[in-house]
Amino acid sequence: MSGQRIEQRGLYFDELVLGATYAHKPGRTLSEADNIAFTTMTMNNQGLHLDAAWAATQPFGKPLINSLLTLSTVIGQSVAQLTEGTIIGQLGINDVRFPHPMFHGDTLYTETEITELRPSKSRPGQGLASMTHTGRNQHGQIVATATRTCLMWTQQAHEASKKAAGDE
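RESULT FIELD:
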């Protein structure tokens, strides 16, 4: 036994591979309870999410998962693999689309493609990473896409920053 401590983290800017697609597992089945909790917590009283009887009279015939819950889960599924502990801040989310609805009991699977990597001009040891997230349901139908840009540490700069702060 080595006594070595290994902490889970995402990838540093300099570990990301331009053009690579990262598959995030496991998937996440979104329940009616998830949908109601998220929808009410965010004060979205849309009947399509909360009123099953009324939603049954609408074009999809049943309640829809709140699209912002879908988006939050898509991004959240990428965190452990890509940005946990290596992100400085999220700079923007663009080009969000929901081409197919999610329903109670659907399972969401996400993958992320790294679309641009650029060292920061004003912050040495940091870089901007752009990524496109794609969420699919259990049938393989695309239910969400979004492009996200994050400011991320390089490994060397982050370790130096932690050492200077006395964290290591």
